[in-house]
Design brief:
7 helices; 3-stranded antiparallel β-sheet; alpha+beta; about 230 residues; about 10% strand; about 35% helix
Amino acid sequence: MSTTSQGEGWWQASDGNWYPPDAGGAAAVQPVPGPAPAAGYFVPTTPCLRCGQPTVLDRVSCEHCGQVKMLPLGVTLTTPGRRLGQYSLDLLLSIVTLGLGWFIWSLFIWRRGETPAMQIMRIKVVMKDTGQPATWGPMALREIVGKGIIMGAIAAVTAYIAWIILAFMLMWDKDRQELWDKIASTIVVSGYPEPVEFGQPFDAQPIEAPVPTEPAPAPVAAEPPQA
């Protein structure tokens, strides 16, 4: 390589330098470094016991069929449509009972993880980490602090705009949690049986062990008739 031509056959490259004749092929095929390939990532999954589809481990339920992983087969996350219907029914019951009747009713059934509408619609609030029904304490935190105080303050500050958005939070949350669910560490499920044997469908009958039977005796060959 030189800054000037050194004789016949020398050629000038795009960088302004001169190269001997035998360097032309090597210089012409110099690879241009490109961007490094994007590094991939691995998402651990496990097969769902209900539908068999692979489901991500960091979800409490199967993203295909809604089966809650820690609960018996058939217990699923309540669908967004049913949750919104439950809100409407609770509001209606509160109006009909002048609020006081709804609150007294709630105090009796919060210990089972239910609101009046949830009791009618067979929906239950359970703890996200254990799957056990929420008791009076988590339900009071969820309903009074989460829905009443915090959501009420958000509605007052944002003229109900943020309140409306947060009311539909379960539509995009991977565990279908509302803000008050996250405050109380709860999820809402359908089909929760009481009582139930864990590990079998909630509507299944107890499986009885098969009774062992003795093998049938081997057939005896008939004797040929006497002549």
